[in-house]
Each structure stands twice: as C-alpha cells, then as structure tokens.
Amino acid sequence: MTFKKSSFPLIFTAILCFVIGLGLIILCFLFPSGNDYEDPDPENEIVNNDPQQPSVPDEGNGDKVEPGEALNPETPTEPSEPDVPDEPVDPQIPSEPDVPDEPSEGEKPFVSSKDDPLLVLANVDNPLPDDFEVGELELVQKNSQGTYKLDIRAASYAREMIADAEAEGISLFICSSYRARSLQQTLFDNKYNSYIANGWSADEAYAKTATIIAIPGTSEHQTALCMDIVTPSYRVLDSGYAETDAAKWLAANAYKYGFILRYPKDKQDITKIIFEPWHYRFVGVENAKLIYESGLCLEEYIETLK
Ligand SMILES: [Zn+2]
C-alpha cells in the first residue's frame, strides 16, 4: 500500500484527532462527573445521629451491630484469632469480696445441719483431727499488731462487719485470728519441755502445760473461723472489755455478719472456757441468727441439730 506524499498531513491530522479523542475518553473514565466525591451532606449526618431516628435497625437481640461491620458482605473474613491460651486464673488473687448474699424471697428456708462445715467444733472434748486442714485464708485486717487472716468463707463478712462498725464510730481491732496447729504445738512443746527440764514427770508436765497452753487441736483459732477483737482504747483480754462500746456493738450486731459470741458468761460450765467478750466465731449468717435468738452456745446449738 502506498500513499501519495501530499496525503501525509491529512493522515497525520487524523491520527492526532484519534489520539486526542482517545485521551478524552480515558480522562472521562478516570474522572467521571457526579456527586460521588462531594462531602456527604452534613445535615444527613446529624439526622442519622439523632437518637430519635436510629439509622441502625434494631437487631432485636440486644446486641448492637456496628454498621459496615457485620452488614458488609465484602468484608473479608477476618482470620480467626490465633489461639491464645486462656489467662491463667491466679489463685493468689483473692476473689472479689463477696457481699453477703441476702437470701432472696422465695428461696427455700435454711435448714441447719450438724454436718454444716461452718459448725466445726473444736474444744477440749472435741479436738480437731490431726489431719484437719484449714481452708483457704484471706486477709481481714492489717493493723499495728499484725496481719490477720480468716477462712475465705468468713473473711468478707468480717471485713464488712469491721467497716460497718467503723461507719458508726466503733473501731474494731483484731488481735488474733488464725493460729496454725504447728504454732500451737511449738508453744505447747516448749512449755512442756521446760517442765521436764525442771524435773517434772511426763504426766505432771503435760497436765501443767495444758492449764496454760491450749492442747494442740483444741484451740478454735486453728479453724480460721474465729478472731479476737478488741478496740484501740481497750486491748486487754479481760472481762472489763465487755463494758466498752466495741464489745457492746459486737454483742448486738456480730450475728448479722455470721459471728457469734463463742464463750458467753452464762455458758462457762458447758464451753469450759471463761467468758470471752472478745472472741467471735463465724458460723454463717443463718446459724448465727438462730444461735443469737435462741441464747444457746455453740455446743448446745449443735446438740439440737440432726
Ligand atoms: Zn480467741
């Protein structure tokens, strides 16, 4: 195919027109006219955010679905979260202090039982077994005398009782709580050995020691369910403590928190322990209320149970 030399400008013009036309078409594709790139109408935004006109339909199950999330089918499926091992539950962290549960109306009535673990008896006639294991302990109070812990079943009630007393201007000060059997044994052995060293017979030394140091296993403090409570202005463990506001407050209110006066004045022949207005024992709120209202001591109360 040949072209005359004079027709070249015409061909060149045609090619130029074609190129320009093609360019315009490409530009139209790249920058189409329309409102797509305009800012959304700000008024629409306000309307959509109007709580009176929710823009997201109510899903009906209470769970809110974020627009554009679950509703967007184009969203590629998120790769599932890599398997991260569950956070180990640290057993050292004490559980949130349980606010004592008020039994709700309609719950079955409380029936006390001899087998209730909160009624465990520790006295001269009923020593704890050698293999008695104390429950998990939890801090109740740290004061200038020491750090005092109780069984986790009692600790939150004790803390609440102390806080409520404080709110009424009564300062409760723990001076003894859990005592390990090993400590009791050490105290006992040291005293016993001192008598032996002084020439006492084994029987004499044992009997004499037992009048001064509780025989291991017979101290209720080993259960971690009791504590001795005084008040900063009166820290002596004697009957005079009963006249303090703290002792009076405890006598009137401790049962509401599951604690009972363990060694009442009029029950010494049964408990075989002197009147101890400072010694309070946790038995659970229901048992404590029944014991408080009946006027029985723990030994008597347990006798009434099946
Ligand atoms: Zn005590």
List the helices and strands and how they pair.
Layout: H1 8-30, H2 42-49, E1 137-143, E2 146-151, H3 152-167, E3 173-176, H4 181-197, H5 202-210, E4 226-230, H6 245-253, E5 259-261, H7 268-271, E6 279-282, H8 285-294, H9 298-303
Antiparallel strand pairs: 1-2, 3-4, 4-6, 5-6
This protein binds zinc ion (ZN).
- Name the bound molecules: zinc ion
Task: Give the strand content.
Answer: 5-15%
- CA-based gyration radius: 40 Å
CATH class category of the domain at 134-179 and 220-306: Alpha Beta
Helix content: 25-40%
- What is the name of the CATH architecture of the domain at 134-179 and 220-306? 2-Layer Sandwich
Largest sheet: 4 strands, antiparallel
Strands side by side in the biggest sheet: 3-4-6-5
Number of helical segments with 4 or more residues: 9
Global geometry: globular
List SSEs in N-to-C order. Answer: HHEEHEHHEHEHEHH
Mean pLDDT, all residues: 77
Query: How is the CATH topology of the domain at 134-179 and 220-306 named?
Result: Muramoyl-pentapeptide Carboxypeptidase, domain 2
Structural class call reads: alpha+beta
How would you describe this protein?
- By secondary structure, this protein is α+β, with helices and mostly antiparallel strands.
- Among the domains are: 134-179 and 220-306, Muramoyl-pentapeptide Carboxypeptidase, domain 2, CATH 3.30.1380.10; 180-218, no CATH class.
- The protein has helices at residues 8-30, 42-49, 152-167, 181-197, 202-210, 245-253, 268-271, 285-294, 298-303, and strands spanning 137-143, 146-151, 173-176, 226-230, 259-261, 279-282.
- Strands 3-4-6-5 form a four-stranded antiparallel sheet. It has a two-stranded antiparallel sheet with strand order 1-2.
- The structure holds zinc ion.
- Zinc ion is lined by residues 176, 221, 226, 228, 279.
- Zinc ion (ZN) binds next to β4.
